[in-house]
Write a structure and sequence with these properties.
Length: 87
């Protein structure tokens, strides 16, 4: 199921942000014993022209918007590294 979540995250981010670089990594293994264990801990590195001129908070909001209903119902924690090309 986690592989499916990673693919869904990739699809949504690709459709919304047209990244030139996208890495989505399942980090669930780092959270064994944590209250949210099994609910989905991920890291996303995204380089997209859509982030040009945006501050970090705006970039994170764009990612959350792209993921929509996955945030409360499939992703417990998401670490984001969002940059514009050339950064």
């Amino acid at each position: 199921m986690t592989v499916e979540k990673v693919e869904r995250i990739r699809q949504r981010l690709t459709a919304a942000l047209a990244p030139v670089l996208l890495e989505v990594i399942d980090e669930g293994h780092k959270h064994a014993g944590h209250a949210g264990e099994g609910k989905g801990h991920f890291f996303a590195r995204i380089v997209s022209p859509a982030f040009a001129g945006k501050n970090p908070i705006q970039r994170h909001r764009m990612v959350y918007e792209a993921l929509g209903d996955m945030m409360p119902d499939g992703i417990h924690a998401l670490s984001i590294d969002a940059k514009a090309p050339g950064e």
